[in-house]
Input
Amino acid sequence: MRIAVVALGKIGLPLAVQFAASGHEVIGVDVNPTAVETINAGREPFPGEAHLQAKLSELIPSGRLRATTDYAEAIPGADAVVLVVPVFVDDVTWEPDFKYMDSATRALAQHLTPGTLVSYETTLPVGTTRNRWKPMLEEGSGLVEGKDFHLAYSPERVLTGRVFADLRKYPKLVGALSDEGNRRAREFYEAVLQFDERPDLPRPNGVWDLGTTEASEMAKLAETTYRDVNIGLANQFGLFAAAHGIDVYKVIEACNSQPYSHIHRPGIAVGGHCIPIYPRLYLSTDPDADIVRVARQLNASMPERLVAQAEGLLGDLSGLRAVVLGAAYRGGVKETAFSGVFPTVKALRDRGADVFVHDPLYTDDELRALGFEPYAIGGEADLAVLQTDHAAYRELSPADIPGIRLLVDGRAATDAAVWAGTPRMVVGAAA
Output
């Protein structure tokens, strides 16, 4: 097949590589000329994705994969077009911001030719594929969906850093606007993906046809919103447990020993491109989902709550040296999208603290570019807040932060025995 992939970011580029490695001709489109140039030179444009560089080094010289900024070069004559353009959410209104996907869809429509399968993989509110993308594609192309081209929705279900492994591990969900569209979508993804055996699943791992775009859209929103709500519940339990001298981690371990309980772990922040955003996409079409809204609000409030607790223990934070350990939104991943570092730093600055940030994955200049003053392990500080569960922080000791008067361990990552004698506050445990 000839396949076009629109948007060569941290999901789109590995997808394009996966399709090409499966034996197809792939051309990727991206608005960033620097990224396009880097890819065509056979170099990964971002670090941290397992096996990506090795695969690019093989596929680019072979001619099976190339990149362009020109839709006219990529879209005409494609058997399938896959879009992974980001959709954002307004921080104030929580309404979806479709501007980048709208632009990509209009550009795609101008060059769409008969016989193409168009598949959206970006997480979307329920109904978007049918009610927004179908009319936009038909108007821009003059073609009729279901007759001249077919439209499907198939959510990406992978984590950056392990995309290729996740593509094999999880069923590929598809839903289209017609029976023929469903058939085409199934055939396409069966031709570009390979799957691990999963005896734990109710049916064989592979392409799972959910019948409609709405079902497929909701499946992605439901699985990610579940995680946010579950973390919100864990945080609620953790706040109560800490206030009553209970170790919530022992409680959760006990609960999860029974097969019907799957309580997640509490934490200072829920970050990344997915979990903080997708519940709000769900709420955009189900505004009565109060449980989703409350969980999202609670999770977003955790940095402020923990800094306030630290202030309660230390007193006035004005003028104190405070260190936030970890800029990344999760351990081992060099990515700050919706990271808890931002509200944590703000909460500390609002109380007058002199705030510094450390992250083993970022240089001092990179931290400064993010608006932070860098900190080096071994420097003096009064207060430290562990925001990211990097492996390096598990070995942290009071000697690494001379003068420390309180550690706020927002990930329950440090060793209590190592910190004996130094005040240490853990999310979900009594101070």
Summary: The chain has a mean pLDDT of 96. The radius of gyration is 24 Å. The first strand starts at residue 2 and ends at 6.
